[in-house]
Amino acid sequence: MMPVSALALVIIAIGNYLIYYQDSAAGPWVTLVGLFLCLIAFSPGVGSQSFVLNSEIHPLQVRSEALSLITAINLLTGYLTTAFFLTVTTTSVGKVATYSTLAGVCCLVWVFLYKVLPETKGIPLSDIPELFLSPEKKVLAEEIYLQFFGQSSDRKKQLS
């Protein structure tokens, strides 16, 4: 859904360009279509991404604390983005440039997520954090786990 969000932001930028630089009657309609498309694409795509991603990548032992921290950071960055957005969109140049920049950032995030995040379909939640570890770090993580929790019979079977 991120490419759709980026497309919607480009449509909004074009609509603002038509309003402020071309004095076109179609500008408000183009902007309205872009806003509706952005709202439709945001919730199932970019809007929920931070919660879905973070509920999977953190180890079970720290998942609740990590999600609390991520939620606080998400709310703080949402506030800062809104405050910044309201100041830069006071001019016509700011409106067009802001939506264009947001579309570019959305595309970069999509490429980053596509390239970096592994597929987690069918993998148990307890095994997902290990996908992000190099072989050396997997050994170190296993040693730390064993020191902290001790060797249980299940872990001994997995190690042998």
Can you walk me through this structure?
This protein has 160 residues and is mainly alpha-helical. The protein is elongated, with a radius of gyration of 22 Å. Helix 1 runs antiparallel to helix 4 (92-116) and helix 2 (27-57) packs antiparallel against helix 3 (63-88). It folds into two domains: 2-117, no CATH class; 124-160, no CATH class. The chain starts with a helix and ends with a helix. The protein is 77% helix and 0% strand. The chain has helices spanning 2-20, 27-57, 63-88, 92-116, 135-149, 153-159. It contains six helices and no strands. The model has no long low-confidence stretch (mean pLDDT 82).
> How many discrete domains?
2
Strand content: under 5%
- Count the DSSP helices: 6
> From the helix content, strand content and strand pairing, which structural class follows?
mainly alpha
Profile the largest sheet. none
**N-to-C SSE string, H for helix and E for strand:** HHHHHH
Helix fraction by DSSP (H/I, runs of at least 4): over 70%
What is the number of strand segments? 0
Radius of gyration: 22 Å
Low-confidence stretches: none
**What is the molecular shape?**
elongated
